[in-house]
Amino acid sequence: MHDLLETIDMEILMHRDTHFGGSFDVMIEYYEQDGVGVMPDFEIDQMKKLQKIEKEMNQNLSEFYLPEAAKETVEEAKKLYEDLRAVYETGEGNALLSDLILSEEPVPEKEIEALVEKKEKVVPALIHLLTSHTFYDPLFPGYGRSPIFAAKCLAKIQDERAIPPLFEALGQENFFTDEEIIFALASFGDKSKDFLITRLKGEPFSKDNEYAAIALSGFSETEEIGEAALDVLEKEETLKKPLFASYLVFACSALSKESLKERFIALSKRKDLLPSIRDEIAIVIKSWKKGH
Known about the structure:
The protein is mainly α. Among the domains are: 7-66, no CATH class; 220-292, no CATH class. The protein is 65% helix and 0% strand. Helix 1 (7-19) runs parallel beside helix 5 (68-90).
């Protein structure tokens, strides 16, 4: 009996069963062609090793090794594939959304444009796609890419209903998704900026304040954003959070009023200031001097 204890092996089996009909041959060919759904941690050599073990045992490794919870997740993902494909046969549901999710294109431009043409009619469906945790999971249809494409669509449609859900979708531990969401939020201009500044200054403090600071970094630097950042930066609680404070410090680069600059400079003289924040404040102050 082979010991198959590595988590990565379990994940390979789950992806094989979900996306490739349980076939190592199909999965290996897909990875050799560098398909859009490849997982960077999955090595082809490891797939071939598992395939060899399976042949030696003459038994489906998934049945033998995967825990029940993992099997149930695979069945859930396969069922979602079936539901998305059934739309084409039954006519029930949104075929354009299925096209977007099931696309094998690196960026499904045609599918995105087809949805954008429907404008506000598809906004609720796109918001559902953006806010559904399922579609962030690469085990499920879309390989975890669908929220990125939903954000692209919403940025093009420009329906303001999308602003709060886009914000709520930040922080899914996926850099590429966050990057696209920040771009989408910035595309709404002042409406989105005002929303984010309100979240930035909201109390009591939560992760929302930090996500708002990150999202505002995607906007052009303005005095308004800089002043809001300074207001929050001066709070005792903020200075205990280096990453959050760092975003705010650099947002203050846009300050031009002398009274605001003096408040910012005063922060650098606080004795309880973390050295890293003091250094960042010094960089901003130095940039002002160079600008004169």
